[in-house]
Each structure stands twice: as C-alpha cells, then as structure tokens.
Amino acid sequence: MASNFGLMSLAVLALTLAVCVQGSLGGITCENLNKDTCAYAVSSSGKRCVLEKHVRRSGEEAYVCRTSEIEADKVKDWVESDQCIEACGVDRKSLGISSDSLLECGFTHKLCSSQCYNSCPNIVDLYFNLAAGEGVFLPKLCEAQRGDARREMAEIRSSGFVAPGPVSGVNPVKFGVAPAVAPASS
C-alpha cells in the first residue's frame, strides 16, 4: 500500500515537472499535441496548429498535429477552450484550415453570435483572416447574418474577377484585396 502511494506521488511529481519544463522551454509545440487538442491551438512561436490525417500502408488512419505557416494575431501558447469550440460551432477534429465553412449559414451564425464573436478572439481572428483572404470583411458578413445573408454568401463564392461583357475586346478587371485587420477584442 505504501509503495502505491509512493508511485502515485512520483507520477504526480513527474507530471508537474513535465508541465514546468514545457513552460520554461517555450510552451506549446504543435507536434506534441494530440488530436483532441490540436485544432485551433497556437504554438509558442505564434503559428497555428493543424490536424492532419495520414493513412499508413496497413490502411490504419493516424492523426498528426503539425505546425502550419499561418500565424495567429497576438496569440501564442494557446489551446482553445471547450466553451469557445462549442460557442463558435467548430470541431476539434477539423482537418486542415479552410474558409469553406464560411459558406455554411449555420456556421457563420454561430461564429457571429455574441458568445463566440465577443469571447473567443483566437477563433474570430482565424476566420477573420480566412474571410479576408476570400475578399470578405467578417464584420460585414456578421452584419449580413442579421439581414440578407444570401447576398453575402454569393460574394464569398465569387472569384473576385469581373467577367467581360458580350462586347469583344473588353478585358476582365481584377480587383485587389487590401490586408484587413482583425477587430480588437474587448
């Protein structure tokens, strides 16, 4: 009985030491996260973590957390809370990082809800930048959620190019997108 207590104390000490060492050596490394904490996490270098699925030769699926090239704005050493995952309608088992979910009305409704938009700056920053990459200003998209969301969805789906009219010799116009800045969290 005494040896079980000693082993348990040793295990607690080892776990405490591991947490302290991780914090002193730079914090979160995406490659050290498991599939239940990877998506929506940010490494100590400020790079977003991304969950990837690999199929081994045996056919077995393996999930691996990797560091992406996408930088988070003003966030480092962050594993997203369960409250924000639920409030924003995101999934910890999301593979990769994509703006595709912005096309889903149910997702944008949750993302734009006050529970998410005002309380989960990490997720809002990610989707703000993804929307900007598609030429959409997230606050405007959220405003459209309260009005005519179909028109805003059509703008997201467009390529950003204006097609030439039926008159020959007219060249298409390409519109550039200026970098956008995420709204400051309150």
Automatic annotation (TrEMBL):
Tagged with keyword Signal: yes
UniProt keyword Signal present: yes
InterPro entries: PAR1
Pfam hit, one: PAR1
Key words of the record: Signal
Signal peptide region: 1-26
Protein's recorded name: PAR1 protein
Source organism of the structure: Vitis vinifera (Grape)
